[in-house]
Amino acid sequence: MNVKEAFALLQATAELSPASLSRLEPGTFIRHYRKGDVLFRDREQVSSIFGVLDGAISLYKMSVQGEKRGIFVFGAGALLNDDSLADGMVSATAEVLRDSTLLCLNRELFGQTARKDGALSAALIHSVSRKVRRLYHLTRNNSGSLNGGMRIAAKLWKLSRDHGIATEKGIEIGFDLGITGLAEFLGYQRETVSRQVKALSDAGLLILENSRFVIPDRDRLLKVFEPG
Fold this sequence. Notes:
Blueprint: H1 3-7, H2 18-24, E1 28-33, E2 38-40, E3 48-62, E4 68-74, E5 93-106, H3 107-116, H4 118-145, H5 148-163, E6 164-167, E7 170-173, H6 178-186, H7 190-202, E8 207-209, E9 212-215, H8 218-225
Antiparallel strand pairs: 1-5, 2-5, 3-4, 3-5, 6-7, 7-9, 8-9
Helix pairs in contact: 3-4, 5-7, 5-8, 6-7
C-alpha cells in the first residue's frame, strides 16, 4: 500500500481533491505498530495526526488513583488525535490493542490544508462531532442510568459492532481485552466485572476465552441494556 491508496481508507481524506492530497503527501508516511505500543501520551506535544488504516487503538486517561480509564477504541478509518490540530497537544494516551497500521500526517500541513479545503474542514467537524456524541453516551452510561451488568453488556455489544470478527461461536471482539481491560474501560473494580461477566456467561450471552470476548447472539445481548 502506498500513501495515495492509504488516503482513500481514511474517512477524513477519502473525498479530498487531488490538489489537497498533493499538499498532504510530502509530510505523510505509513507506519506499522505492534500490540502494546504507545503512540502518544496524555498532554504530549505531537507533530503528526494519526489515522488508522488497520487495527485497533485505545484512547485512555489516568485517574487520580493512577488507574487506566478507557474512553474510546478506534478502528480503520478513524483519526485519533484531530483534537491536537490547534496547539499540538493531545488529550489522552493512545495504546495499540492489536498490531496496527497507521497513516501519519504532518500536523501543520494537515491544518494548513484544512483551512484551504472545505471538504477536509467538513470531514474534521464530522469526526469531532462523532467523538462528542460518543462522549455524551459515555456520560449517560456512567451517570447511573445503567447498572453494572447493563453497562458491561452495552460496552461489549458496541465493541463487537465496531471490531467484531465472525467465528463459529459468534462475533469475536478482535483484540485481547479480558476482565482487567474491561474493568479499565468501565472504571469498575476487577472483582465486580468478573462477577458480572460470569453472570452474563452463565446466561449464554458471553464467552470469554484467552482474554477474547465472543458474543454468541448480539440481539440477545442488546436486550440486556435496551429491553423491549
